[in-house]
Amino acid sequence: HDPIRVAEEWSMADNLSGGRIGLGVASGWNADDFVFFPERFGRHRQEMYDGLEEVRSLWRGEALRRTTGDGEREIRLHPRPVQAMPPLCTAVVANPESYERAAEHDLGIVTNLMTQDIGQLRENIARYRRARARHGLDPDAGRVAVLLHTYLGEDHDTARADAFEPMARYMRASLSLFSGVTNSLGVATDMKSLSEDDLDVVFRRAYGRYCDQRALIGDVDSVLPVADAVADAGADEIVALVDFGVGADQLRAGLPRLDALRRRHRDRQPSS
Q1: What are the extents of the domains in the chain?
Q2: pLDDT, tens digit, for every residue of 210-254?
Q3: pLDDT tops 70 at residue 190
Q4: What Cα–Cα distance (Å) separates residue 247 from each residue in 19, 166, 239?
Q5: φ/ψ of residue 66, rounded to 5
């Protein structure tokens, strides 16, 4: 995305919302997503940070010099945004250097547990906060949100069974994603060489481990330890990722249970 377009569209949204937007940025990873700018693939992470600085510059009211149809012009943002600067975050997963880079650029973190465990998450969050301090930023002001696949049922076993097929389809839609998750859980294999039946066996082996350690799939009591562990690792927020393919009626039925989990988890956290 061109930084000028990003800044202009979100400045408009900032005005319409009365200054309530926040922005998340990511570099992308799928080569097919770079059809507009194929030359950027391979250096897309640096391109993201370069583009973000241009968005910030425009947001502050500064001009960017660009080539138009009849020469070079200075481009400024219109309408002017309401917020001096919106909250900004970036998506990272398990690479420790990505946490440090986000800290250097004063970005919050959105992450998940698909290819890192709780221990690695704890280490990465600590690394992120140390890096913020090194760059003269308040370590605790950088927010870390952790996305967890979530489906809560009346009882643990039924919820696990109901979520199995949707989660299998979700994971197997991308072999690279599927491979990263299973390898991280200790179920290492060459996915490209496996038949459909073999892939099913691999997923069944990984599914229980994933739900036990890295997801909120079960009932309120059975998933509470995962929520507590994520908070204890230093996360500021847990984001319930519910749209991985569970039926709409089942999803809606689980929302009151999600609220019950939220209240139980909140009550167990130490008061500040």
Answers
A1: 1-86, 147-268
A2: 999 999 999 999 999 999 999 999 999 999 999 999 999 999 999
A3: no
A4: 35, 9, 19
A5: -135, 155
pLDDT in tens, 96-126: 999 999 999 999 999 999 889 999 999 999 9
Measured distance CA(225)–CA(269) in Å, rounded: 12
Query: Nearest Cα to 55, choosing from 111, 116, 2?
Result: 2
Q: Which segment of 23-27, 63-67, 112-116, 180-184 scores lowest on mean pLDDT?
A: 180-184
Name the pTM for this structure.
Answer: 0.89
Distance CA 222, CA 206 (A): 18
**Coil, strand, or helix at residue 90?**
strand
> What DSSP letter does each residue of 67-129 carry, written as one string?
EETTEEEEE--SSPPSSSS--EEEE--S-HHHHHHHHHTT-EEEEESSS--HHHHHHHHHHHH
Q: How far apart are CA 41 and CA 30, in angstroms?
A: 9
The tokens describing 107, both together, are: 């970005």
Q: What SS3 string covers 15-54?
A: HHCCCCCCEEECCCCCHHHHCCCHHHCCCHHHHHHHHHHH
In angstroms, how far is the first alpha carbon of the chain from the final one? 40
Contact 82, 16 (CB under 8 A): no
Taking the alpha carbons of 235, 240, 245, 246 in that order, is the dihedral positive or negative? positive
Residue type for position 140: D
What is the identity of the amino acid at 90?
A: T
- C-alpha gyration radius of the chain: 21
Token pair listed for 4: 């000028």
Structure tokens at 16: 């319409």
Give the Å distances, CA to CA, from 141 to 22, 103, 135. Answer: 15, 10, 13
Q: Is the dihedral of CA 131, 132, 138, 140 positive or negative?
A: negative
